[in-house]
Amino acid sequence: MSTPLPLAMAELARWRAEGLTLPVWWRDDDAIEPTPALDRLLALAERFRAPLHLAIVPQPAQPELAERLRNAVDVFALTHGWKHANHAPPDRKKAEFGAYRPLPVMLGEIAEGRKRLRDLFGDKALPIFTPPWNRIADAVVSQLAPVGYKAISTYTPRATRFAADGLLQVNTHLDPVAWKSGGGLLGPDQLDAQMSRELEARRTGSADNGEPYGVLTHHLVQDDATWFFTERLLETLAASGVARFTSPLDG
Question: Which residues contact 160 (CB under 8 A, 6 or more apart)?
Fold first, then answer.
């Protein structure tokens, strides 16, 4: 058993004293094929009985991944872009669906991605779009519902419940990977403090607790320290008595 995160655990104790419940969901990005890292991820989800939402890149996704997940319980597929290809100019942040290509082209790829995941994963493929790098142009967002999506997921607390007509916004909030410094784990104390602040904001009503608190992992790039932190995070939630895993579509 790992050691729970102390600041987050203290905040969750306040939730318990006030009789509150924290909705939680777990998203993991960039799956394409079966790997030992995926096996490790699935084992961790099974251990904590945590539903797992794999953001899968549709175009390169392999049938072997669908076969690996066929009998997995509470594992779902989300559409993660199309090819996870950057189309932004060199001086802009990476984006596959930014305002740099014709809208019909992008919507065609997004619709095809949804179809491919449904063909591969059947009912496990949820109508949720997760743009690579968590970036997407407003014009694209406004057309996601017409091409069959019910929700969009990016990063940081949502500003409003709906990103567009008929399109739920259900984001992720805690990502342990130190992307800006080239990978590895962000400082565990920093992550613990961030989680505590975000949960306090929810408890006191300055943030939306109707949005499930989103854990974001990336199994393909995590080092041992990041895996251990993920385990600590799940242990914290499991031991809290107030966290309840839910579907992002219930947010």
Answer: 169
List, for residues 155-204, the tens digit of each pLDDT value: 999 999 999 999 999 999 999 999 999 999 999 999 999 999 999 999 99
Q: Distance between CA atoms of 162 and 171, rounded to whole angstroms?
A: 11
Rounded Cα distance, 211 and 161, in Å: 8
pTM of the model: 0.96
Rounded Cα distance between 58 and 79, Å, is 7
Kindly report the number of other CB atoms within 10 A of residue 120's CB atom: 19
Residue 230 makes CB contacts below 8 A (sequence gap 6+) with: 44, 176, 215, 217, 222
The Cα-based distances of 114 to 92, 118, 126, 153, 159 in angstroms read: 27, 6, 9, 15, 26
Tokens of 108: 């065609």
Q: How far apart are CA 173 and CA 48, in angstroms?
A: 19
Cα 135–Cα 185–Cα 232 angle in degrees, nearest 5? 105
Q: Per the structure block, which two tokens stand in for 105?
A: 């082209």
Tell me which residue has tokens 């740099």: 100
